[in-house]
Amino acid sequence: MGDYKKMWQDLNMDIEKHDILCEALPEQFGDIYLTQENRPEAMNYFNYVVAEIHGARIMELEKYKKEGGKVVGTFCVFVPDEVILATKAIGVGLCSGSQFWIEDGEKILPRNICPLVKAFTGAKIGLTCPYFQSCDMIVGETTCDAKKKAWEIMDEYIPVHVMELPQMKREKNIKQWEDEIRIFINRMEELTGNKVTIESLKKGIDICNGKRKALKRMYDLRKNTPSPISGLDALLVSQVAFSDDPERFIEKTEELCDELEERVKELKPNGKKRIMVTGTPMALPNWKLHSIVEGLNAEIVVEETCTGTRYFENEVSTEGDTIDELVRNMAERYMDINCACFTPNEGRVEDIIKYVDEYNVDGVIYYNLSFCHTYAIEYEKIAKALKEEDIPLLKIETDYSEEDTGQIKTRVEAFLEMI
Ligand code: BJ8
């Protein structure tokens, strides 16, 4: 990474502590990613993004802020990026996927909660994440109890806007989400001083749909046997989607897909088992499960997660001549996301069964971050449905530490032999 010390100091970061993170990441990335064989050329851009993860993109954000722009951090795929773009702000995903931040998170949060929440809290209070430090405001949501209560703590460090996500999917809940989107529009207008217009909102929708299309195209290419891209690389592309400039991301992902389309013409069978991962999100740099699975005789071909299909499935319609109509379109699209925080959540079962077929999957791994209760409880329902369809399933409950890596490897190995 280049010399960004001055910028990090200006961002009021804990430089010494942050240096430890900066030293560890390239090695971890090198071991997991750069040792893969025959990677697509177009992955070089995504390698560069990781190499510059706390540098080049942060510089862009800081430059934008100096010109009067605003930066807003988000933690959930329900928060409508369209609105952020329509007010000319930049949105960055702040979910954190490293064990590095856990220690600081545990200083103020109970140990027995989800690592994702402990990590993002630790990243903020330890002053070790430049994305957090660049944000003018963060946007929380009422999904799980851990996140919901973490916003109260976060509010002591940075302005927080919380969107109240309904937990059922009846018409009145969709209307409630419409209302929340309207409130969010007002808050973003206040923050940025920019009014949302039909034109700016339609433009925001188009950009977000463009991202969804590019990701969907990459996922569709993974339906080939074998997949022209590893699960690790596809996961990296999805993770980068949350913080990169959206228009550049679309261009680079489309370029990658062009290359993958060429590769598909020359694919030869590799005998690897095709695996679906379903469950909780994997925020950067959480590559733990993918690196274990793909270190064995298997390839991950689809993730039914929020760093997977839940992020890009379904587009927002641009039909309509009023802001209210566009807000309705957004509410409908977002309320179609099947997160386990909803009750009931039948759509998720249907999605998983559908993807098994579409991606020609041999077995499913249910990935559950420790202490995420909604996903842990929903496992029973998914297990029953998959059993009825005769689809093999393995549940892995884990956190960000490396302690259980050997044990997970043994269990995955046994699973692959069985399917
Ligand atoms: S739409 S999955 S991004 S809430 S933080 S719920 S892992 S205990 S992230 Fe999520 Fe939105 Fe749902 Fe997707 Fe569990 Fe952890 Fe809570 Fe989590």
TrEMBL record:
Q: Which InterPro entries does the entry link to?
A: FldB/FldC_alpha/beta, YjiM-like
Which cofactors, by name? [4Fe-4S] cluster
Q: Which domain of life is it from?
A: Bacteria
Q: Could you tell me one molecular function GO term of this UniProt entry?
A: hydro-lyase activity
Q: Which family does it belong to?
A: Belongs to the FldB/FldC dehydratase alpha/beta subunit family.
From the Swiss-Prot or TrEMBL record, give the protein name. Answer: Benzoyl-CoA reductase/2-hydroxyglutaryl-CoA dehydratase subunit BcrC/BadD/HgdB
Give the source species.
Keratinibaculum paraultunense
